[in-house]
Amino acid sequence: MPDLVIGHTTETSARIWVCGDKRRHTCEVALQPKGTPESHRISLERTRDYTATVDFVELQPDTEYAVTATFSPGATEKVTGRFRTFQKQEDGDEFTFSFVLSSCNLSVVAINNLLTYLLAFGGTYVAVASLDLPQGSWRYARFVLLRRMLRRPAGWLVWAAAGLVKWMTGLKQPPPPFLRSPFLKLSAVFESWTVDVVTKEALLPSVGDVVVSLAATGVVVCAAAKIDATGKKVDVRKAETARPGDDETEATWRLVVTHVEDTFAPGETLNRRTSGDTDDAPKLIGKIIRSVQCHPWYERPSFFIHAGDQIYYDFPTEKLSPDSNQYRLAYREAWFDDAANRYLLSHWPHYMTLDDHEIADQFSNDFKPPEKVNEQNLSEIVATPAKYLEEAKAAYRDYVQGRQPSEACASGAAAGDSDRLWYCFKKGRTRFFVLDTRTGRFDGNSEQPQIIDPDQMEALLRWMSEYRDDLKFVVTSVPFVAEVSEKGSREALKWSGQAEPRGLVQGPRNPANDKWNAERFQAQRDRVINHIFDKKIERLVFLTGDMHCCYHATMRIGKGSKYASTVVHELAGGPVNQLQLANEVEFNISRIGRPSGGADGVFYEVLLDQFHSQMNGVVHVKVSYVSREQLTRAGRAATPEVEWCVIRTLTDDGATAWTAVGEAAPAPPCGTPEPPLASAPKGGEPIMKGLITFSPRRDLPEVLGWEALR
Questions:
Q1: Least buried of 175, 240, 344, 469, by fewest C-beta within 10 Å?
Q2: Alpha helix (H) ranges present in 309-429?
Q3: Residues 420-470: pLDDT tens digits?
Q4: Contacts of 19 (CB under 8 A, 6+ apart)
Q5: Average predicted confidence (pLDDT) for the chain
Q6: Contact at 8 Å (CB) between 292 and 531?
Q7: Which CATH number is correct for 3-88, 3.30.300.30, 2.40.70.10, 2.60.40.380, 2.60.40.10?
């Protein structure tokens, strides 16, 4: 299916990635409004799976552009998207922006495939088991002898038939998936409309259905709500209001729709198309009486960051041969077979990195591959770590790397080359370093243990030093600050205090720990910790995924007094969609450590400050610069603050939770700079949020001369 993804975007440029197929291998990419740079016409090569990247330059800052990709020469097809360039950035500029941090996207297609696999296996098992029924269960006595003769061959035949079906189909459910997409709500909390329509309950659309009017289209986000003339919800659950035949009685219902194109005008007829409907004729819903743009629950993000596990190549089975074509298929299924994810990728800029599931579970360059991988009898494929990495990187270059930034990470450093997967970018004075923690990893089975290779480590430390006083985000696919528990720890902290214990792990929890705090990787982690202390690195936040939870954790590094220490923060985003969620007892709630090879007396304390794992969720991060007199001097730049909120991606809050027309709007969970268009959700949903502020480290001479610094 042809499609596009918005990549690295600055104030004057944008990188657009497109994907065609063997029937549509030529693409023309154009921007609107008029007066923009000329369109790009490109050929899509089969060797790159019909993918390519185009760059648009000389764009206007802080301007919204519509993207149209026209694929030919087969049946011409157009794919559209949208993005906004960043604000004009001069050196040292400080301005507010926000982004979304997510990870761990187990696609709805993969879940469908798992359900299909379970049903197929269960059906086959039942069919074979039925051949072993007691003889008395056979209806006619003359068949008893045949049963004895044919039972075993019939069982073999059933298993052979099941194997043939698996070989031919891969037991994959054809699209579209029939599960709710987490990306539907994720886009809706930033942009959505309510549409009030007069209809019968029996005609209401379901979540995920496409609704259309004369000119507009949209996708239903949540369950419809019955409302009265004032727009208030009617409680249809009460027994006294529920009468037989009510679903055939016309009433006013409120729908919440996102992915809206054009305008739903009052007086027009509203129709629907189900996600799996092959009939082009839409089905009647009713007459529109009102449409209102919803107040966003969170400030619209400038971009998205995906901190690894964008695909699960090893799900639902780990025993897959390393094959670049199968890796590419996994990206297409995760991104484009889900219509809501396809919309999200084409309407915001995206920055990505990879983790193990883009290659193989628990991958390192010296890991032990699964024992049986050649299920397709591909004898020429040797399942070595090098082969896994080669095939996975070939697909990653085609689908991800080409639309990432390529500029140098620090002054005097070389720009990105075609092989390295780590990179840097900036938004005003805020800096980002996106690590590659997988392709250079060794577990210590053949080489010295490391999470990142020496070149990347040197670049990271130079980058930290050059932008020592700027707000810095380091994206790492595995946690750096928070510590996965191998034995269980809750030590009394010197600086951060100690709340009531929230649970202590008894015995090992994660013997296969592949995070930064694993013993075999401690030397690299200690080197970063010592560098932060020695170079007085300030305003540092790690962004991570991997753990199937959201949290805020801190690491305070120093010696002696609290004011002479530095606090490093970490936010975990994700999972956007997962079947398995983490538990708080998998972490060290608090722990004191001492880095090796550093200055005498230096130690650090780690605290898991807040933890959320009740449901799939991502983190909305808002960066602001504020004037705080106690932390800044005359002429110095404002100090940054980082406000963060958890967005749960699979909840259905009902239509009246999104807007209540005519009522005053309470403050949304994370403040928005614009006045509301309609009221925000009453009370909102249960979330976790926080505010990160930065206090500079003060050594004793500085503290004694504090008055002179003001």
A1: 240
A2: 324-335, 339-347, 385-399
A3: 999 999 998 899 999 999 999 999 888 899 999 999 999 999 999 999 999
A4: 2, 3, 4, 5, 44, 49, 50, 51, 332, 336, 399
A5: 82
A6: no
A7: 2.60.40.380
